[in-house]
């Protein structure tokens, strides 16, 4: 798919996987809407200015805010790509050591942001993409979602996160089938251990990441945000990639606990 001059929306776009993806898509000629929470305004504005895009403050579960970001993208060019990177994680067991049950509202929050928020962005972006003129294949756009290896190998305490990411994997084929008539492809990346700001900075953080990297089959290190972005770009531009969930994990298979 030719993306030159087209627009893209990247959720969670101000940092980590989203930032790397925003940068690469802009480098390849797209006008990028960096969509993230309002608390990321300063960072998002700086990134958007650097790459020639715009920042849109939005909670992915808020339809009005997401729609405003999509409308802003359409104003810059035909919306041909959505990359869903926004998400949260939480470590809580189904019952704790004292037998107390998992907080149900916390479970709902994780699922609401990671799964419902992803679908909210998909449905609104797909509606905008449907208005594009199709290419020789009738293609109008491409969507890339972010799941996690926790969808398959969820560790102790990841029940909410694993359920939410498993939902993203589970809807990939169905949404791709739904959107085939509109000429929109849908794929999902399931990252493993990726080096993002979540691990912190400094000597202790680097030592911790190096130890984690030894559990990766090969190469023995954490993945890089740029490697995620590279795969996201391929899924957007390769016309024959559709309805796939792809592990990006160096071959790791997570044990029950780390």
Summarize it:
The protein has 258 residues and is an alpha/beta fold. It has helices at residues 16-27, 41-51, 63-76, 104-129, 150-153, 159-180, 203-213, 225-237, and strands at residues 7-11, 31-36, 54-57, 79-84, 141-146, 184-191, 194-195, 223-224, 245-248. The strands form 2 sheets. The protein has a 7-stranded parallel β-sheet, sandwiched between helices. A two-stranded parallel ribbon has the order 7-8.
Describe the protein's architecture and organization.
By secondary structure, this protein is an alpha/beta fold. The chain has one domain: NAD(P)-binding Rossmann-like Domain (Rossmann fold, 3-Layer(aba) Sandwich). 44% of the residues lie in helices and 17% in strands. The chain has eight helices and nine strands. The protein has helices at residues 16-27, 41-51, 63-76, 104-129, 150-153, 159-180, 203-213, 225-237, and strands at residues 7-11, 31-36, 54-57, 79-84, 141-146, 184-191, 194-195, 223-224, 245-248. The strands form two sheets. It has a seven-stranded parallel beta sheet with strand order 3-2-1-4-5-6-9, sandwiched between helices. A two-stranded parallel sheet has the order 7-8. Helix 1 (16-27) packs across helix 8 (225-237) and helix 4 (104-129) runs parallel beside helix 6. The radius of gyration is 18 Å and the shape is globular. The mean pLDDT is 97.
């Amino acid at each position: 798919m030719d993306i030159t001059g087209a627009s893209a929306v990247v959720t969670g776009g101000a940092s980590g996987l989203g930032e790397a993806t925003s940068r690469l898509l802009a480098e390849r000629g797209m006008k990028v809407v960096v969509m993230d929470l309002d608390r990321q305004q300063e960072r998002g504005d700086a990134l958007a200015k650097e790459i020639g895009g715009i920042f849109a403050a939005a909670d992915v579960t808020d339809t009005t805010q997401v729609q405003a970001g999509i409308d802003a993208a359409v104003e810059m060019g035909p919306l041909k790509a959505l990359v869903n990177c926004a998400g949260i994680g939480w470590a809580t067991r189904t019952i704790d050591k004292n037998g107390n049950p998992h907080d149900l509202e916390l479970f709902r929050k994780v699922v609401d942001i990671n799964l419902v928020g992803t679908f909210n962005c998909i449905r609104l972006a797909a509606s905008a993409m449907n208005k594009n003129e199709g290419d020789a294949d009738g293609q109008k756009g491409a969507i890339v979602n972010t799941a996690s290896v926790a969808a398959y190998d969820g560790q102790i305490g990841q029940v909410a996160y694993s359920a939410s990411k498993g939902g993203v994997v589970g809807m990939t084929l169905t949404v791709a089938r739904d959107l085939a008539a509109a000429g929109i492809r849908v794929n999902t990346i399931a990252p493993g251990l990726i080096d993002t700001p979540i691990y912190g900075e400094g000597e202790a953080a680097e030592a911790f990441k190096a130890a984690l990297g030894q559990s990766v089959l090969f190469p023995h290190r954490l993945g890089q945000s740029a490697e995620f972005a590279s795969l996201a770009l391929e899924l957007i531009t390769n016309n024959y990639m559709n309805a796939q969930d792809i592990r990006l994990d160096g071959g790791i298979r997570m044990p029950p606990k780390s």
